[in-house]
């Protein structure tokens, strides 16, 4: 059993029988994309209030009503980075904090990107474009410098599917 503590149009806050809180999100899915441009990944850096600092992440965002996951990831990539995607491949969905929320993120990969314009950010977004070499990204994931779960999931999925050349991380 759980107790409803707070309810809003987009989510509700509950407490389980052990006193732990969790969030139930209604009708919300998000998308991110691991975009490889030659030997580099196209990433973003943005401030996240829950962390109180900036973090390097994959481009992405929410899926709008009536929009397919692929349409959403293409739109978000273009808005946040100015890059268009060619063919995209679905890598799977991941729950990043299943003890806290039911929110799912759908992860895509592409190695077909081209810069077509400047990013067109929403007024609340403060995003910096980051080009990180594949080798540097792997090393930073290994040493803990990169801490984003979606990025780690995407790189892992891309590697086990053979989308990234085999590399030895020192």
From TrEMBL:
Gene3D superfamilies: Nucleoside Triphosphate Pyrophosphohydrolase
UniProt keyword Hydrolase present: yes
Pfam families: NUDIX
Nudix hydrolase domain: residues covered: 26-154
Cited CDD domains: NUDIX_ADPRase_Nudt5_UGPPase_Nudt14
Keyword Hydrolase: yes
InterPro entries found in the cross-reference section: Nudix_hydrolase, NUDIX_hydrolase-like_dom_sf, NUDIX_hydrolase_CS, NUDIX_hydrolase_dom
UniProt GO MF annotations: pyrophosphatase activity
UniProt keywords, alphabetically: Hydrolase
One Gene Ontology biological process: nucleoside phosphate metabolic process
Cofactor requirement: Mg(2+)
Protein family: Belongs to the Nudix hydrolase family.
Protein name: BH0812 protein
Taxonomic classification: Bacteria, Bacillati, Bacillota, Bacilli, Bacillales
């Amino acid at each position: 059993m759980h107790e409803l503590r707070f309810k809003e149009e987009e989510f509700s806050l509950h407490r389980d029988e052990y006193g732990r809180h969790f969030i139930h999100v209604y009708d919300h899915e998000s998308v991110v994309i691991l975009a490889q441009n030659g030997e580099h990944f196209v990433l973003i850096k943005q401030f996240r209030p829950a962390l109180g600092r900036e973090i390097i992440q994959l481009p992405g965002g929410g899926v709008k009503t009536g929009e397919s996951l692929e349409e959403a990831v293409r739109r978000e990539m273009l808005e946040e980075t100015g890059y268009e995607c060619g063919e995209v491949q679905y890598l799977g969905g991941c729950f990043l904090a299943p003890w806290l929320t039911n929110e799912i993120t759908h992860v895509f990969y592409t190695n077909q990107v081209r810069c077509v314009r400047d990013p067109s950010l929403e007024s609340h977004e403060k995003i910096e474009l980051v080009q990180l070499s594949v080798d540097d990204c792997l090393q930073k994931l290994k040493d803990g410098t990169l801490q984003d779960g979606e990025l780690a999931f995407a790189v892992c999925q891309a590697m086990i599917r053979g989308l990234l050349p085999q590399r030895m991380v020192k």
